[in-house]
## 1
Amino acid sequence: MVMRGSLLFNNNRRTAQRFRQLAISAVGSSKIKLLLCFCIAFTVLLLLSRGSTLTEWTDSGPLDRSSSPGKGYAILMNTWKRYDLLKQSIAHYAKCPGLDSIHLVWSEPDPPSDSLQIFLQHIIRKNSRNGRQVELKFDINTEDSLNNRFKEIKDLKADAVFSIDDDIIFPCHSVKFAFDVWRSAPDQMVGFVPRKVCVESKEGKDYYSYCGWWSVWWTGTYSMVLSKASFFHKKYLRLYTNEMPTSIKEFVTENRNCEDIAMSFLVANVTDAPPIWVKGKIYEIGSTGISTLGGHSEKRTQCLNRFAAEFGRMPLVPTSMKAVDSRRMWFW
Amino acid sequence: MVMRGSLLFNNNRRTAQRFRQLAISAVGSSKIKLLLCFCIAFTVLLLLSRGSTLTEWTDSGPLDRSSSPGKGYAILMNTWKRYDLLKQSIAHYAKCPGLDSIHLVWSEPDPPSDSLQIFLQHIIRKNSRNGRQVELKFDINTEDSLNNRFKEIKDLKADAVFSIDDDIIFPCHSVKFAFDVWRSAPDQMVGFVPRKVCVESKEGKDYYSYCGWWSVWWTGTYSMVLSKASFFHKKYLRLYTNEMPTSIKEFVTENRNCEDIAMSFLVANVTDAPPIWVKGKIYEIGSTGISTLGGHSEKRTQCLNRFAAEFGRMPLVPTSMKAVDSRRMWFW
């Protein structure tokens, strides 16, 4: 048995050696080398060209169908004494395809300076591509209220409004993708920053609480997308201005908070459906905002309960849907 | 130098040994063991409970708001002489929450047998949970045409129609998720099986071609979701029945194909927006279908060009949006 075992072992070793020699000589041969190079090059090419077309077939029409008038979107940007951030934001978004016009919500005591206006006009002309003409308008308000953010804009050509803070930058392809998603669901808010409403029942009554990012991550559900980075239909500006209960608008002005929650309530009350959260990379260029101040979460919890009482119900609908760009996903 | 080097080495070795001993004795101690056990148990608990609530806070209302009448969906299932598959499908979908009614499109020469009807009624009663009453209706047709699939249903309570083949099973949570997505975009088709239209320009004229699954995977874009597994609004049944050009309906009947492409054209023509593809796991319980027959792709290419000529344009809009359930995603 020992003999047979060692013979087998010797045989195995010899076979293994033969295979190794064969493999080495084969790989060493120039033909195999060429084949290997070709395989590697082909794989690299394949990886690089995924998403573009290798053949003469292309998509049925370009993905960008937003070139016709009224088919683009308007940016609605709230700004407050941070001119450097404003310039940086406008310079960036002016480059984005599909953009029709930019509306700056101006609530400072002094009107925008001539130099600021000239600079912004110049940077927009310089950065908007393909001969597009992007309009810039200042919506100047005498009263300083967060409700100004959602004032009706009478001469808005685009149906889609991209509401964005002046200190957040999204890459143009993310904005374009969110716009495409919005076109499939034009009655909903479509945005990048989801938030959650938590509810606790005490003695048959519901108490709501504002749950932040971690809660969304933990449960995978949300019921709002913040209006600091979201698309919605322009009709909601009219509804906010004319139909929102005065008590809610007064609360927003007095507390300098929760105008976005009020807008989310309004949209959900109309549609009875949840908003849509779109995956996108956020670049925050500013450092401070009201959400970093102390007591922010408590104030927003207060808003939720107060607004729910005003609406007579909690209109927000929870969901777990996330819209992702399948061109940017490898694993399905 | 050599001396110093070896001293250093000895010192290092001694320090390492001391650390090793310390570590071993520490791990060996019962307190540390307990701590380790606690850490492992906590991690396992954390992983298991993700998605459920650890605290007393829960979602604002259940994610399932489809319990009120008219808020659910109806299943519209085309079936043809495959009673085993039919029974299996119905038994499965009867379990799914949100289901209001099942409409079986019956185009066989003989009406459904009593035994089949009794069996299906029984299995639905048995499987539908929480005291729900799921209605079963046979839509019996005298003519055998694929247009029967989209005949108007006059007494449909639900707005949402889930059109599904009898040989495809989706888990209830996938169906529920797609239904939730549809509620955010009720004018669109929302489905699990995306397909792509490719276009080639020859002498200023566009020629369309039907591109399958691989093309969708490769480019990440699509312009249809197949009606063999998709949600749409019941109004499209009325539009298909009453507004679809007769020539297209005749073509569908004669060729026994492309009724789903015709429906996609109709919806896109109304909305001018793309459908929505929802991620979901498909279980195909049958083995054959027209898509496995030879010449399937050529016939569908023919349909695309013919229907585009009838509509006077290509209404289908390409997109790259994919709706995923964020409760089932770990990496964002």
## 2
Amino acid sequence: MGEFELIRNYFAAAPCAQGGEGIALGIGDDCALLALPAGEQLAISTDTLVAGVHFSDPCDPFLLGQRSLAVAVSDLAAMGANPLAFTLALTTPTVDADWLQPYALGLNLMAQRCGVGLVGGDTTRGPLSLTLTVFGRVPAGQALTRSGARPGDLLCVGGELGNAAGALPLVLGQRSADAAIAEPLLAHYWSPQPQLALGLALRGKATSAMDISDGLLADCGHIAKASSVSLLIERQQLPLSGALLAFVGDDQARVAALSGGDDYVLAFTLPSAELAPLQAAGWPIHVIGRVEAGQGVTLLDANGQDITPAIRGYQHFRETRE
Amino acid sequence: MGEFELIRNYFAAAPCAQGGEGIALGIGDDCALLALPAGEQLAISTDTLVAGVHFSDPCDPFLLGQRSLAVAVSDLAAMGANPLAFTLALTTPTVDADWLQPYALGLNLMAQRCGVGLVGGDTTRGPLSLTLTVFGRVPAGQALTRSGARPGDLLCVGGELGNAAGALPLVLGQRSADAAIAEPLLAHYWSPQPQLALGLALRGKATSAMDISDGLLADCGHIAKASSVSLLIERQQLPLSGALLAFVGDDQARVAALSGGDDYVLAFTLPSAELAPLQAAGWPIHVIGRVEAGQGVTLLDANGQDITPAIRGYQHFRETRE
């Protein structure tokens, strides 16, 4: 048995590999088999994280294990899907138990939290990278897509924005901060919580949804394009954490919220009549703008003036992180 | 729009991205959506190919496009699954149209041949590697697994063995050969044909199956272990191509067939009563041995003598290719 086969067995022995309902056959054969209840469809999303591009190398493998799965599962939340399973394609230059063990621990912890079972994958030798493919269930016709936003809808997000971008100088060791500031920001970066329950609550209510991974402005652009509408964002309505405001100040906090990315918070459009019942039920929904006829994304200041051009310049840095 | 987003659009525009029956939502949203007929399960397999490990770099991108999908789809054949869709996670150091265009052409050609539609994926910057995840449909309970082989079954393969391993010195430029020898060997290496139709024909007949990727001996070991049986392979019964025999001679051809890997031919066990009707129907089935009570894989010479130890030494090189 080769050492890479040992890795496969190691992951196969993890608790999350046991799977649950819907996993007819897990790790160890040519394919895994998933079963779906009648009337449901399978939602699928794939994300790759490359060392030195999407995370620093070296980094804490336990935290990477959590984060690598969370960012993939977040796409299931954005579709309103029930999480089911995932595969892991791990490429690593060496077989290092001191790295693999904490990575698998972090992965398993997030898998249990999200309710997904490891059903397969591949383990190969090469420069460190991770490709995770996640699977969820959604009743036919009820998935939340990007294409249903309508003029008159409210534009909403499911939580505070900009925390992960605010954490980046801490992650990269460029700045330090008191624990009261650093810990919530770093927790958001390393251990984002996919908004799976919110996604389910929005089924049949939100007209469009996605998760914010590339930054609010860029991701709202995807909804605007797919729905052929214009999205207006009110800069003063962005929900910001106390830690982010204390760390970088109001102006930079809003830049981070608009362009920073890695939030993994849901952005969605909602007919106004749907808002009050959802908020009354306790869902963390922040109205940040509205949908109008037209195209593209427009950022408005507190006076309703268009300040979009002033913020666009911050987006160029995205290119380096793809 | 970043250049990596352009790549995504490029693949999304490919004919194979249109998909067919069962693809409810393809590229462009947070998730793809697959629909399954009632009573069917989804078969899933993931394969990663790393530059410099699984293929030489540089290599012909058109041929790599074909091969990268074929090796993944072969796992669907091994399960007796109907091909449906796939995702591509492409990591590349630079955006080079002269590489991407022929790669996508080769990929699309194999996708059309196999009947799978591209439904999603990810495109990232980093050292060249490809992770393909393939999806197929199979009626619940009818998938061919590795675990059902029974004493008394015949051990069979679906075609000639060792051609891809025989091609390796040609691929690496270590040797040359006349076109009559080189072309069939290289075709097998670069453009393996997943035995999808054979997989379907074996449903309800074969007791176990897998595709030969790591070499006949190693892969038969997986069946023996999963089924808790002993597999006996008769060295003289291995089906070998004229090109391979002419290129490396009888002894080395049998070594390639036993240990070489990359054949992507099905290996399976079959109750003896099932053999004649399948062969009469024209399926290319070669009996190479039998199943007995016990464990492990035993290689027999023409006199029925156990020659397993003599061949095992050739397997060590596998480690370098994982």
